[in-house]
Amino acid sequence: MGRGKFLMLVALAVVVVLGAYAVLEKKEAVTETPPKLAEGADDGSGESEGEVSGQTPQETGGEATETPATDKPSGGEATTPPATDKPSGGEATAPPVTDKPGSANGGQAGISKGEDGAIAVIGKPESVAALVNPFNMLPDDYVPGDLVYPDVRFIFKEKIEKRMMRKEAAEALENLFAGAEKDNIYLAGVSAYRSHKTQKALFDRYVKRDGYEKARTYSALPGTSEHETGLAVDVTSSDGKCAAADCFGDTKEADWLKKYAADYGFIIRYPEGKQGITGYQYEPWHLRYVGVDLALEIAADGSTLEEHYDAVPVSGTK
Questions:
Q1: What is the rounded CA–CA span in Å between residue 128 and residue 142?
Q2: What is the pLDDT of residues 43-93, one digit of tens each?
Q3: Predicted TM-score of the model (pTM)
Q4: Does residue 47 have an active-site annotation?
Q5: CA dist list (Å): 130 to 68, 102, 113, 165, 267
Q6: What is the DSSP letter of 33?
Q7: Which long-range contacts (CB under 8 A, 24 or more apart) does 202-205 make?
Q8: Among residues 283, 297, 306, 307, which one is catalytic?
């Protein structure tokens, strides 16, 4: 082979090698890893970072996929429906009666007379004039925000839940006890505040012992007991005799309360002969704070809180 032809073949080989290298370099440039997708961008997999991280997903496929994060909890499960007001005992009540004004309702919503067994949820449970009875219940989550220990004697020494009252009622009770002592009447507290949890436990215990229907005749459904307001207190004589018993009605302490409790803002909540109106038997020991003006008005005409709100008659169950 001549020298000239040999040099031509070498040159051709060099060109081929250089060309192949160029092609390979271009291919490697094309197959580099693409930049990481920005958060919230759809990566084509059908899932987006936004849905996982709680951010708003982007639109995909021409259809909006935006879903507020608060509408879907993690795990993709449906949210729990809001709880409804239902007394314990396993039986649902009729729908609450709302915005039924009485002669005066102190800003409350939903005063019920108990037609068809309807139970209304009190709109302003913090009102000292709130009507609480078998057909007007406190919200399940209501807890008085100003509970204190009144500085009066009780038939027990422990500072526990049932010794507490709302501040305004506690101060009024202190004044009532002091006023009674000026007349040589010595009172003692038996039971005041009772939490919703405690009332439920009591009622459930009675249901277990006597059955639901019988329990309803002497115990209040959770939410319908005045003790849950922090405005009610059961009292007796200082010797503790006749505590929460019918015999208290024959004592000088009970006579004094009938005459003077209203002067301190309390009413005898369940008067004799009014069971068909209040839904409770005669309880001369059960005092309820409603404020001096309302207490004097109710005492003067011998009425009840139900009659004041034109919320009668109610069922004769307790």
A1: 14
A2: 332 322 222 222 222 322 333 333 333 333 333 333 333 333 333 333 333
A3: 0.66
A4: no
A5: 40, 12, 14, 15, 13
A6: P
A7: 203/88, 203/89, 204/88, 204/89
A8: 283
